[in-house]
Structures are given as C-alpha cells and as structure tokens.
Amino acid sequence: MSRRKKSGASAEKKRERRMRQRRIGLRTSKKLVGLFLLVVLCLAGLALRITYINASQGERYERIVQTQAQQQYTSTTIPYRRGDITDRNGTILASSEKEYNVILDCKVVNTEVSGLDGTTSQTYLEPTVKALVNELGIDEASIRKLLTDDSTKNSQYQILKSGLSITDKQKFEKYTDLTSKENANLTDAEKEERQNVRGVWFEEKYVRTYPLKSLACDTIGFTYDGTTADWGIEGYYSNILNGVDGRQYGYYTDNADVEQSTIAAKDGDNVVSTIDVNVQQIIRDALQQYENEMADNDQKNNGAKNVGVVVMDPNTGEVLGMDSDRWYDLNNPRDLTPFYTKEEIKKMSNNDMMDALSSLWQNFTISNAYEPGSVYKPITVAEGYTTGVLNDNSTFFCDGGEQVADKYIACEGTHGQITVAEAVKYSCNDALMQIGALIGEKNFLKYDNIFNFGMKTGIDLPGESSGLLFDADTMGPVELATSSFGQGFTVTMIQEAAAISAAINGGYYYKPHVVKQITDENGAVVQTINPVLERRTNTEEVSKKVREAMGAVMEYGGTGYVTKIPGYSMGGKTGTAEKLPRGNNKYSLSFIGFAPLDDPKVVVYVTVDEPNADNQESSCYAESIARNIFTELLPYMNIFPDEEGYTASDVETGFVTSAQMIGKEYSIGENGPIYTATGKLSSGDDTSSDGDASSGNNSADSATTEAGETVTGNDTTVGTAQDGTDLPTVDIGSEDTESGNDYFTDGVSNEDLSNYLSDNP
Asked: Which residues of 131-157 are buried (b: 16+ CB within 10 A; e: fewer)?
C-alpha cells in the first residue's frame, strides 16, 4: 500500500509541473505575438509618415541632403592677398587684385524635382541658364554642353568663366536676391524663376598685376601663378609677400539654415623698395635714346648684346634705379615677340625657349660677370694709398709700356712723367702696372677681397654671381700687371658700383640692397631694413685722393671730359675692355661717375656690352647714356650746380647721342692736342678720329689738329692750343699697332692670353 501511495503522489506532482510549464509558455507566446503585432503597426505607421513627408516636404529634405554632400557650399577656402611692392615714395610696382571664377554645379542644375502631381522636371535648368547668359554674358551653347555631356553632367565643379570682376559678381547676386529693393516689384512668376537659379557659385582668387608694365622689370620680377616667384624682389621676398589662406566652414541646422564658422585669411606683408620710379624712368629714357640710335629694329637686334645701368646712393648702399635693355611686360613675361621674329620663335624647341626666357628674365647688373677694364683703376689707386706705396709726391714715367717677366704689356700712349691723378685722368696702363707692382701680389689679393670682389655682395635679389679672381696660386707678375688696370678677372656691375662707392665715401662698404621696409596689410612698419656697414676699406684721406683722381678724369683733356655736366663738380672713369678671345674686336665699354665731387650723393654706372657698331672700342656709347642720365638725375635729386660761374640755367639739357658725342672735343695726353671727330670712333677711351681715321696708338689715315694741321701714319705735329700755348709732339700711331686696355706686344699675343685664362680660370 505504501508503495502504491508514494507512486501515485509522484505522478501527480509531475502532471502539475507539466501543466504549470504549459500555462507559462502560453502566456509568453501571447506576449510575443502582441509585441510582433505592435512592431508591425509601428512600421506601418512609419511608412505612412515617410510617405506623407515625401509627398509634402520631400523637396526640402532632398535639398538638405544634396547640399550637405556638396562641400563647396559649406567649406570653402578664403585666399589671402599677396602683399604689394612699392617704390620708396609709395608708387605701386606690384599688386594683387581680386577676381572671381564662375563655378557651375552641373549635378544641382540637372536635379529632377518631383511635383505634387507625381511628375518630375528639371526645375532649375532653364532659370539658371538664362541668368548666366543674360547677367554674366556666358555663351549658352557652352553651358548646355557641360550640362548634357556624359563626362560633365554630374560634375559639381566646372569653371564657366575666369577673371570676373566684383562688379559683375554683384550684378548676378542682385539678380537672385529677392529681398533687394530692385526686385521688390517682381511678379510671382519672376520671383519663382529667380528663386530656381541654382548650382552657381563664385570662387574668389587674386591676380598679380604690374601697373608700370616693363619699368624696373629686372628688379621687380614676377609671379608664375600669383603666389610663387623666382625672380627679382618677387622671388627674394616671396615668403614675406605671401600670407596664409583662411577657411569658411558651414553646416545646416534642423531647420535647414546655414550656420558658418570663419577663420579669416592673413594677408601678406608689403615690401617698400629703395627704387625710385622717377629715377627708373630717367634711366629708361636714356636707354631708349641709345636704342633708338643704335638698334637694328628690322632684325630685332638691340643696340648692344647687353646694356646695364645701376644708380646707387654711395652712402647707404641703396639702389635707386637698376635696368638693362631687355624690357619685358611683367604682366606677360613669356612674350618673346619683341626680341625674336615669329619664324625664330616657331623653330625654338622647348629647351631653346626656356633658355631664351631665362636669359630675358635674369638681371644683367647682378648676374653677368665680365672684365671691368679701366673703371677698376680707381680701386687700384685706393689700394696703393691704403697700403702706403703711394703718397702726394708719387709720380710715374710712362714710356709706352712695361716689360713684365717675359711679357711686354703696352700702354695706350706715351704719357711721360705723370702723377697718380694724371695716370687715372689719361687712363695710363703703364703707371697702373707700376702701382700694382708696388702693392704686390699678396696685398693686391687682400684688398680685392676687402672691396668684396670675387664674392657675392649679398644684395637682396636672386641670381647674383660672384665673378672670378686670381688667387695666390694663379697670380704672378703678369696677372698682377693686367689686374691693375682691370683685365684678366671678372666682376659684376653691382660689385663694381659698391666698391667704387666705398672708395669715394670715406671707405665705408655698405651691402647693396633694394628693399628698405616691410609693412603689414594696414601699412604699419613691421621691419626697417637699415643700411648694413660691412667693413672699412680705406680712410677718408684715401677717399679724398681717389675723388681727386676721378675728378681729373672729368676735366678738360681727361677721358671722361665729354660726360661732365657743366656747372657740376663730378668724378668718373671710363673703361674699354676687349673681350675674350682677344682680337675678335668685341668690347665691353663702361663709365662710372658720381656727383658732387667732394660730397658724393649718387653713383651712376653704365656698361655697354658689344655695342651694335662696326667699331666697338669707343667708350662714348656708355658715356652718352651716362651723360643723359646725369642731366636729368642731378636736378631731380636736388643736387645743384656747385662750380663757380655756372647757374642752373647754364646747364646743358636734352639728350645727346653717341654720334653727337663723337663730335665733341677729345684730347690725347696732357694739354692736347685736340682732335675734333666727325665720324664713328675706332679708338680707346681718350682718343678720337676723323672719318675712319683713328688716333692714339691705333692705325690712322689722318687726323686734324686744333691748329688745322693734318697728320698721317707716324707723323708728328706741333700746333697751337686754344689758349695759345705750344702743343707737344704727338705720335698718332702706326698701321701695325692696336688699341685697348688689354693690348700686349712683343711677348704675349691675344691668343696666348686667352689660352692662359682658359687654363687658369
């Protein structure tokens, strides 16, 4: 019994457990079914809501989604403005002007918008095309091509027009601005049309412009794309002129309103140069006068292979003007048509064209090194006085040349017993060689370095050359002799101008520079670039001696006499250097001068490299340019006539040509005789000719003295000078002799020297 009772109780408990589990499972199933039905109902409600929103506000949300996908609208770059370059008086030399690109978002314009009736259309297409054509003058066919072509119809960035002005941009914006007064009277249809102008925006940019076009092009330089540059002030100060782009960020709120956050651009700083545009124009006018006289325009040949001018303040190193005769428009720097024929340009390879452009863009006055010739002689004199080998009583005897080692080096004439000042006045190579020998090789090289030859001046312009000098291993007695009168080594114009400035200003060598201030976008001075005194080259007493010697050059009978402006005390030096290889009749001519004599305020240096003339060896080509510059420059700089007996009205004005200068009086030797030239010169610094005749040590058919006597060949003459004194006997020269500062005889030929310099650079 007991077993049966226990078995029955156990079975009953199992049945109760199964019933309880069944009741729990049934309740859970009902809950799950209810939850499922609830989810289905929610989804159905959401679908109904989405359908309603799409029908009533679908266009609004579609616009939000599309706009958020187009970051051009909501995240844009704000370009900086590159700083201006001005002259010392504030005249704009380079500036950046704001322009705009018209950008078309083809995808937006082609958007198909659904209407309430369920149909779709390109609502924005025709209003946008109409606005672009009528308001901005863009060709309709080009717009429609972009909107229909498979390669562009979905593009979000297509440039429709570049260089749009702010006026045209504002005109378009007023057309689409329905809140403006101009659009207040529009009909509802017109308002709807303008409201549907979509997918057009403006990209802001700056374009570099040069208001004075080619004026001072070598010094200013240009930018390739408005922000990068390699040439001139633009290249050297590019990082200072450039600024930092800004950024405008945008996002849309729940109400589809645009919220913006802007980081402003930082504009570049401005550069104030030392250049004076009026001085620059004076230089340009003088160079243009030379070109008008000498250039062969039919063949597009200039008046010389190269012409350079530097005008400098000798007391600060500031460059007031700098130019060459290769003028190109800074707004169109790749235009070669002024220099080459169309046929020549067409035949150019890419490398040829780049070589031509590089040659055009480089600054001749700092990049080209050449043998200076006699303009170097004042430096030799300064070295002589500084080392103590020269004094007030120093004299030298010129007998026509010097035997140096196994070489005989000829002078340009036979000057007899002369002082140091007279040696410079008559450009006597013989005396200069004797001075060089007294200085010695070691000291000569030392003071070459002190005057900064063989090294870059550090001028704030790219592309400067250093020139080539002899050193202790390559300089011997012959090299010392030729170097004393400026042959056998090379310099740049800026080196020579800076060195002469130091020699005459009391011995203060200032680093040449073309920028004097940096200002910010508001015009406040950020940095002042003060004159940099680098070293002392000589004493004031030595400078006085050098000025006296260079003043003698400008006196009656001196080689620079025809360049002197009446009424002004001036100093100067001419130079004539035959180029390598010797004997090719190609010359580099130069003149360097300053005023006033006792208190120099301006230095003018002119170099004419291979003038376009049959006979190149006359420095009158450089002198005519220098004289024309001084004539206008001195009054402009408020430098007044300071010689007794002259007034401002007595000073000669107007341009002179090289031919006119040939007609002036030239003298050979102290006190004459005077030869009045009527044809092109074919002699050295201080000689003249009658027709094809040449005087000095050149061959000569004939020449006429002031006394009216005619001399030929090696004939001599004694006449009467204008003051009534007897003229000394003068050797006109023979047919076998040659002229030039580099002429060697009886020991070394031009070819020998050329080979030597090639082997010993």
From this structure: bbeebbebeeeebeebbeeeeeeeebe
Task: Match 């779709």 to its residue by tokens.
Answer: 120
Q: What is the gyration radius of the CA atoms in the chain, in angstroms?
A: 42
d(CA 199, CA 158): 10
Question: What distance in Å separates the CA atoms of residue 627 and residue 624, rounded to the nearest whole number?
Answer: 5
Calculate mean pLDDT across residues 290-310: 82
Distances (CA, A) of 28 to 37, 477, 731: 14, 120, 137
pLDDT tier, 710 (very low <50, low <70, confident <90, very high otherwise):
very low
Burial class (CB in 10 A: 0-12, 13-18, 19+), 281: middle
Which residue type, as a one-letter code, is found at position 200?
V
Task: Name beta bridge partners: 515.
Answer: 273
User: Which residue has 């040696």 as its token pair?
Assistant: 423
Please check the confidence at residue 496 and state whether its pLDDT lies above 80.
Answer: yes
Q: pLDDT of 63-85, one tens digit each?
A: 555 554 444 445 678 899 999 99
CB atoms within 10 A of CB 387: 17
Model confidence pLDDT, tens digit, residues 20-38: 666 666 667 777 777 778 8
Could you read off the pLDDT of 603-621 as tens digits, one per residue? 999 999 999 887 888 788 9
Q: Parallel, antiparallel, or unpaired: how do β-strands 158-164 and 92-104 relate?
A: antiparallel
Q: What values do phi and psi take at 347, rounded to 5? A: -80, -10
CB–CB of 252/68 below 8 Å? yes
d(CA 448, CA 474): 15
Distances from the Cα of 336 to the Cα of 354, 355, 361, angstroms: 11, 12, 11
CB contact at 8 A, 433 and 404: yes
Q: Is the peptide bond before 596 cis (omega within 30 degrees of 0)?
A: yes
Q: What is the mean pLDDT of residues 747-756?
A: 42
CB neighbourhood size of 611 (10 A):
26
One-letter amino acid at 106 equals C
Q: Counting beta carbons within 10 angstroms of the beta carbon of residue 348, is it exposed (0 to 12), middle (13 to 18) or buried (19 or more)? A: middle
Question: Over the stretch 124-175, which tens digit does the pLDDT of each residue have?
Answer: 999 999 999 999 999 999 999 999 999 998 998 999 998 888 899 899 989 9
